[in-house]
Amino acid sequence: MTAPITVSEFRAFPALPDNSGMTDDQLQTIIEYGWELIEGSCNQKLALTEHFCETHEHPSMTCSTKDGILTFIPKNLFISSVTDVNYSYDGESFIPVSNQTLVRGIIKVCPSPFMDGQHGYASIEYTYGFDPVPDDLKLACILMTNHLLSAGFFPTNGGLSDGSLTPRWIPQDVEDIISKYRRYR
Q1: What is the pLDDT of residues 130-161, one digit of tens each?
Q2: 3-class state of residue 96 by DSSP
Q3: Is residue 1 assigned to a domain?
Q4: Domain span at residue 60?
């Protein structure tokens, strides 16, 4: 996992509690855990992720043909590029498609290789996430890490040093920032 901020960036942020007693590795673990909580709350990865592949049944809620255009609604938002689109029907192997476009996070193929209602499968491979991560998400990571530190959650190799459970909720100031990135499934 790659968090959007470095230990140096976190330590340079003003108005943080004293974290000088922590090693960089300990602090990096807390930063990554905070980022994991943020991505989990958003129901998707937000930092750039290379080549995610998914297969959709056609027709379905996420893959359908209308007016000769095949439309995919992928599992992830913030798609930066489409690497590959393939389709299959009647037991044929996947056949590549080269005429896809990306419109506001939805992948469209025109003309569709499927007729309206024809059963088959479509496979898409794409890259998604932010590169670079927006400043507001970096701030959310700093605030979440600060929250974890303020609450006394200090990781060790075997878990948390005090044996407590880690928080499963996001503070309101972080929620306010990440709400526009949340994916509802």
Answers
A1: 888 899 999 999 999 988 888 776 554 344 44
A2: strand
A3: no
A4: 49-128
